[in-house]
């Protein structure tokens, strides 16, 4: 089977953390050309193309032609000193999806604080520009300081140029938020700032055309503040959030909600699924494929608050939500990804150069406990018009 063909319609996992060793260099993918049951998802490994260095919590960025995946930020392991668990990765890495080879690209004006920056999210427009905000740089020794950022950064994957902006009305520093792009606006939802968990009733957004920050209040149903949740943009233009964790490691309510940003003020709606939801998750990954939101990895949130020192159990399962009727399903139907009248991608013989990505970070348990660097949805369509690339998801250290 042609591995590049699989990359055209797959969920890709880049880089793992197995606790011992702490980081690995694996590249995995989940083939979405065929139907499968969530009990046994068909994960596979690209054994010929490990990451140049074991890596954790980097942000994958896909070029507009789908030929290259860039890994920005993240941490690696000090092979000379096992007492230092994490150090900044030495460079940005690029993975060629045609020949499955890794290189270290040159990026003009690169912001070196992104070598080691974690707990951030990024989103791309259809012109190949990735937008990053916030993130965290951990202290490696007693002499170094941990920093939570609130700078605005743009990585142009076409020009291979980096831009760091200082702008008025920039939101507070934050991590573990979710992000999605719609109609040239990037929406930042939830997360944690230096002052604590962020209110869900104030939604900052970034205008990618005019390069300025905006903010809007919300109305509608009460949505509990959270971090470590996921976000996808549904086919009908709603922002759908799932999971997360509240203060005191508590379960959030509601677990599923939508935000309509097409009205003023924005409108929240709590969603009750048509069947029993899966176990509540945080720091998981989610990506939208047609009508299906595919959820994997993460940790399980209990119904009762836990002390800050408590460790959350790891999620070993994959879940799928039909976003048309808000039903959790047991089977991924590759022939029905857009509903009853859809056509399977498997029957398509030609692909345009457009690509759609969903990015997230999470934790998966297989033989051992594995933490994922990058989890993204990569697919191509016939005669597809250019559109923004929403990149949902969250990050967490193990």
Structure explained in plain terms:
- The chain is built from one helix and 36 strands.
- The longest helix has 5 residues, at 3-7.
- The chain is globular and about 50 Å long.
- It has 398 residues and is an all-beta fold.
- The model is unreliable at 1-7, 16-21, 342-375 and 378-398 (pLDDT under 50).
- The strands form ten sheets. An eight-stranded mixed beta sheet has the order 18-19-22-23-27-26-25-24, with no helix packed on it. The protein has a five-stranded antiparallel beta sheet with strand order 4-2-1-36-35. It has a four-stranded antiparallel beta sheet with strand order 5-6-9-10, with no helix packed on it.
- The protein has one domain: Neuraminidase, CATH 2.120.10.80.
- The chain has one helix at residues 3-7, and strands at residues 9-17, 24-31, 36-37, 43-45, 59-62, 68-72, 75-76, 87-88, 93-96, 101-103, 121-124, 129-133, 136-137, 147-148, 152-156, 161-165, 174-175, 178-182, 185-189, 192-193, 196-197, 202-207, 212-220, 230-233, 239-242, 256-260, 266-271, 281-282, 285-289, 292-296, 299-300, 318-322, 327-329, 331-332, 359-365, 369-379.
- Helices cover 1% and strands 39% of the residues.
- A hairpin with a 2-residue loop joins strand 29 (285-289) and strand 30.
